[in-house]
Automatic annotation (TrEMBL):
Superkingdom field: Eukaryota
Protein name: SRPBCC domain-containing protein
InterPro entries (alphabetical): START-like_dom_sf (IPR023393)
Record CDD domains: SRPBCC_4
Organism, scientific name: Podospora didyma
Amino acid sequence: MGQTISVSAQIEIEASLAVVHSIFMDFARYKEWHECWTVEVVDRNKRPADLKVGDQLRVNMRGMPMVFHPYVGGNSSESFVWEERLPGILYGRHHFIFASSEVTPGGTTFIQREDFQGSVTVFFSQKSANDRGVSANWEAFNQALKKEAERVVALA
């Protein structure tokens, strides 16, 4: 399948894993706290918390020229994964990881990482993927998630 290019963005959040995960999984509220992305469950009868491997999403990321329809690759309290395939051309597996912070007591380390594989990856390097703004979009999302989670904690 060719080389693998991995891109990531990470942030420390002064809020518990449960708070950060709950905000992340509430796709319908995304527009209330950021403008980076919209995520919708294609099957309107399913809630994000109930998504299983193979369920489909509709995702629109600001700055991307298209809406894409990834499939859920995993859904737990520690991570959420979606996968997108363009057969023979590109395969991407996007991880959203919720880890207990080793820096912020009681806090969360939130990590986004995508592993890209496929024939087109021969034209990219780790640096070129970042230079194309891939991680910049994720960093904007991470900042917005941090701000919302810390706002929710402050109100409690």
